[in-house]
Specification:
The chain is of the alpha+beta class and 423 residues long. The protein folds into two domains: 4-104, Serine-tRNA synthetase, tRNA binding domain (Helix Hairpins, Orthogonal Bundle); 121-422, Bira Bifunctional Protein, Domain 2 (BirA Bifunctional Protein, domain 2), CATH 3.30.930. It is built from 13 helices and 19 strands. An eight-stranded mixed beta sheet has the order 1-11-12-13-16-10-9-4. Helix 3 runs antiparallel to helix 4 and helix 5 (143-149) packs across helix 12 (390-400). The protein is elongated. The structure holds one RNA strand of 92 nucleotides.
Length: 423
RNA sequence: GGAGAGAUGGCCGAGUUGGUCUAAGGCGCACGCCUGGAAAGUGUGUAAUCGCCAAAAGCGGUUCAUGGGUUCGAAUCCCAUUCUCUCCGCCA
């Protein structure tokens, strides 16, 4: 949620910057300003009214104490009119505030000034590319075929017990996943992140805090009996750890890492992009979250990009880093780098991580603040990134490392997997 | 799931015969004094948020789990909800 003050200060600039995200905000912005004007006006009247009531009540109290019952009773009569008006005003006030809030949450985050315009992934800016594409034998196959050949992943069995998008991992690939999780967590801890094990079910307030609600509620699994949502990413519970928290400036940077399963309904997805491990309803991910001082958040974003690059390098996967254009960015993000790994057998880039700076968009919703040097409270910046999501990493590892003798594990993983080869 | 107790500021904790209560006291924290330096001691300060104001100062509103109610007036009384604790039941 954008800070109301900044909207009021330069509405035209807000509109211009949101146009980079292909979002026409003009109507929303002016509705917001009008509602806020109304809110202020109503509050002024209400406050004055309440101030009068309060002073009358005090007077009456003093009269009764002094034994001047009659005068007190006389004064009581004056209050009823005030009370009635106050009731009316507060109804208007609350309704206006609610209406304002509802419109305000519809406005996306502002893209950073450096974000290129654009509408599709083709308009994204490639900022880094590393590693050689592996040269595979002519009979190289995509991971779903390898999974069948070595009896690693059973998609049909997953269908039976849950449905499409819930694969069953077996044997060495199950162990590979466990190895990856530990590898990623250990790396993050070494890089100064504190490990968190968060709940997988969260309440609506948490979903709202990180921006999944109200606009993307169809993407989360929901348990109505208990009014809880399954997390689509550990970002939700971990960032919400700091909801309604006022940090000290010296607390920065706050660095958390969490492994969790992630649950996504992926309503509306189909086709070749969802084949095999490319898109799942349940998958595992290690997520890093940082809270940063507003002056430092873009340095932190770069630090996170370098950190994830390092992971991919250790896994010996060719990758590139893409800075998303306005049209490809999420609702909540101010700047996003996508990390993509080259899948040799599918001959395409697979997104394995998305690293974003949300600036104060999430923290404004969550009331995540810190006290600065001068003792003033201001909003912190939040950032997060996958480090990393497993399924597509597994897909790329299987595909890129296939040989006639079997699938070779990258050296960095062997001490975690306990084997060098899937055969 | 059943029975009972409870929810006050960063933390502990007083206040529940309704009246100047944002709320005693303590701890913590910040700044000073003391000290060669520290500890101890000592002094001062120490909630958030909204509105009025160009801003500071100042003034006003709101907040004692949440929502409603009674009343001129509610931390204090009533109702509902949520959560926590204790006991019982169930249980990895």
């Amino acid at each position: 949620m954008l800070v109301l003050q900044t909207i009021r200060e330069n509405p035209e600039e807000i509109i211009r910057r949101l146009a980079i995200k292909n979002f026409d905000a003009r109507e929303l912005i002016f509705t917001i300003i009008a509602l806020d004007d109304k809110r202020k006006e109503t509050q002024k009247m209400l406050d004055d009214n309440l101030a009068q009531s309060n002073s009358l009540a005090r007077e009456i109290g003093n009269l009764f104490k002094a034994g001047k019952t009659e005068e007190g009773n006389l004064l009581k009569e004056k209050t009823s009119e005030l009370k009635e008006l106050a009731k009316e005003l507060s109804v208007t006030f609350e309704a206006t505030k609610k209406e304002l809030e509802e419109v305000l949450v519809k406005v996306p985050n502002l893209p950073h000034p450096s974000i290129p315009p654009g509408t599709t992934p083709e308009d994204n800016e490639i900022v880094q590319q590393e590693g050689d594409f592996p040269v595979l034998a002519d009979d190289a196959v995509p991971h779903w075929d390898l999974a069948a050949k070595y009896n690693l992943i059973d998609f049909a069995l997953g269908n039976k017990i849950s449905g499409a998008g819930f694969p069953v991992y077996k044997g060495k690939v199950a162990r590979l996943q466990r190895a990856l999780i530990n590898f990623f967590l250990d790396q993050a801890i070494q890089a100064g992140y504190e490990e968190i094990q968060p709940p997988y079910l969260v309440n609506a307030a948490s979903g709202y805090g990180t921006g999944q609600l109200p606009d993307k509620d169809g993407q989360m699994y929901y348990a109505p009996v208990d009014d809880l949502y399954l997390i689509p990413t550990a970002e939700v519970p971990v960032t919400n750890l700091y909801r309604d928290v006022i940090l000290k400036e010296s607390d920065f940077p706050v660095k958390n890492v969490a492994y969790s399963s992630c649950f996504r309904r992926e309503a509306g997805s189909y086709g070749k992009d969802v084949r095999g491990l490319n898109r799942l309803h349940q998958f595992d991910k290690v997520e890093v979250v940082q809270l940063a001082h507003p002056d430092k958040s873009y340095e932190v974003l770069e630090e996170m990009r370098l950190y994830v690059s390092g992971l991919l390098r250790m896994l010996e996967l060719p990758f590139r880093v893409v800075k998303l254009c306005g049209g490809d960015m999420s609702f909540t993000s101010a700047m996003t780098y996508d990390m993509e790994v080259w899948s040799a057998a599918q001959k395409r880039w697979l997104e394995v991580s998305s690293i974003s700076n949300f600036e104060s968009f999430q923290s404004n919703r969550m009331k995540l603040r810190f006290k600065d040097d001068t003792g003033k409270t201001q909003l912190a910046h939040t950032l997060n990134g996958s480090a990393l999501a497993l399924p597509r990493i597994v897909a790329a590892l299987l595909e890129n490392n296939q040989t006639a003798a079997g699938i070779k594990m990258p050296a960095a993983l062997v001490k975690y997997t306990g084997f060098e080869m899937i055969d």
